[in-house]
Write a structure and sequence with these properties.
The complex is a heterodimer.
Chain A lengths: L2 H11 L9 H23 L5 H4 L3 H23 L8 H4 L1 H23 L10 H22 L7 H23 L5 H20 L2 H4 L7 H5 L7
Chain B lengths: L3 H22 L3 H22 L6 H14 L10 H25 L19 H16 L3 H12 L4 H8 L3 H23 L1
Helix pairs in contact in B: 1-2, 2-3, 2-4, 3-4, 5-8, 6-8
Classes of the chains: A mainly alpha, B mainly alpha.
Chain lengths: 228, 194
């Protein structure tokens, strides 16, 4: 089939389409739904025992805000990355917040070290943290993947990685409210680390999650050529 | 260096394509055909410029057209049209180049085909015809679903996704149908030779 014939068939089969809403609007929709889910999760599991003490600490507030903002910006970036022709900086938007989150955890580690010495940096194996993040982030992750699939798969690896980062960071923020960790280094390794590992791992499957849809050539073939 | 007249022409073209795309999204087939016809030479030039040694420029251009068709709902009327189009064209050209590299990595070019038999007439025309007839008979014995899957993917050479689009069945179901179909055919052919 030559290109002119393909154009004729595509045009003949074209139906009105529902325009994709603005990426920020879609990100906000996802965030509100996922935040509700996270709030229910915190309500069901209960706040951590030392919550009233921790919430008064500026470092805890920065850590919590950075995790939530990372999630919010990663979702926005994931949706932007499925819209062709949008600027590159939008896809990089979550990374400053991710760095703030890392810095707040790093500062916590440093403070623990100066106060309690090297033993405060001891890492215990706590794989349950990782699995909790995997299990609880499944729902918001499935939701955001279904939503990004409506877009164009122009950067499938990046989009999938950002979508997973959004879901996992939100759940990690929720975990700060209901899961008590002994030290900053444990949060750094088992919560922040889990978020990064999950995002990187999911990104590897980008092409399987987001791919170019095929056009039903049978429906195009059914378009009859008008006879003059 | 572009002159003010070139810039004005470019802006007018951009505005025109934006309006055509708006109409196309609303279901105006004439506007859509006009838009695709106008972007066709631009896409040809783009693909030829980005991948000068591309052996199949027209195939890649058609892939870009199909991709534009499937994601035309992602165009935001508030944004310029050309960056949207060029991002898709660039992405699909890279995909085509990657596919070609992957394919050529598994292929070896040889001047003389190696002989597997000492005589060139090991398989004569009669035997070839007999084989084809046996395969045709084995194919005819398959249930409709399995026969259609085998015909589309093994005879016509469609990919799983293309066959899925044609039949309306899921990729997983097609995989199972082809697997079972081939297994049954193998058993039928084995019975026939015994």
């Amino acid at each position: 089939m030559n290109s002119e014939e393909l154009i004729r068939r595509l045009a003949a089969s074209a139906k009105p389409v529902r325009r994709l809403p603005h990426p920020m609007w879609r990100a906000m929709m996802w965030f509100v739904l996922s935040l509700t889910y996270a709030a229910v999760l915190v309500f069901v599991l209960g706040l951590r025992a030392d919550f009233s003490v921790r919430i008064a600490e500026p470092r805890f507030l920065i850590e919590l805000s950075a995790a939530i903002l990372t999630s919010m910006m990663a979702a926005a970036a994931a949706f932007c990355s499925t819209c062709p022709g949008r600027p590159l900086w939008e896809r990089l938007a979550p990374f400053p917040f991710l760095l703030v989150w890392l810095a707040s955890l790093g500062e916590g580690c440093w403070r623990d070290w100066t106060l309690h010495g090297v033993q405060s940096l001891a890492i215990q194996l706590e794989f349950s943290c990782f699995w909790k993040i995997v299990a609880t982030s499944a729902a918001p992750l499935i939701l955001i993947l279904l939503m990004v699939r409506r877009g164009a798969p122009i950067a499938p690896y990046l989009t999938t990685g950002l979508a997973t980062l959004a879901a996992a960071a939100l759940v990690a923020a929720g975990m700060l409210l209901f899961h008590q960790q002994e030290s900053s280094v444990m949060v750094l390794v088992w919560q922040f680390g889990s978020v990064l590992v999950l995002s990187g791992f999911a990104a590897l499957f980008g092409r399987h999650v987001l791919y170019w849809r095929t056009v039903d050539m049978r429906s195009l073939d059914n378009q009859t050529t008008p006879h003059c | 260096m572009s002159t003010p007249r070139d810039d004005r022409a470019r802006l007018e073209r951009e505005e025109r394509w934006r309006q055509l795309m708006r109409a196309a999204q609303d279901g105006d087939t004439a506007a859509y055909a006009a838009l695709l016809s106008e972007i066709l030479p631009v896409l040809r030039r783009f693909v030829a410029y980005r991948w000068p040694s591309a052996p199949d420029v027209e195939d890649i251009v058609q892939e870009v057209l199909l991709s534009v068709h499937t994601v035309r709902h992602t165009y935001d009327l508030a944004r310029p049209f050309m960056p949207w189009l060029m991002t898709i064209a660039m992405r699909r050209t890279i995909d085509a180049a990657r596919r070609r590299t992957a394919r050529s990595a598994n292929e070896t070019t040889v001047d003389i085909m190696p002989e597997t038999f000492s005589r060139s007439d090991t398989k004569n025309e009669q035997e070839t015809s007999d084989d084809q007839e046996a395969i045709r008979r084995a194919l005819a014995q398959l249930p409709d679903g399995q026969r259609q899957a085998v015909e589309l993917m093994k005879v016509r050479g469609l990919s799983l996704q293309e066959a899925s689009a044609v039949t309306g069945k899921s990729v997983a179901s097609l995989k199972v149908s082809v697997h079972r179909g081939l297994k049954t055919m193998r058993e039928v052919l084995k019975r026939e030779t015994q």
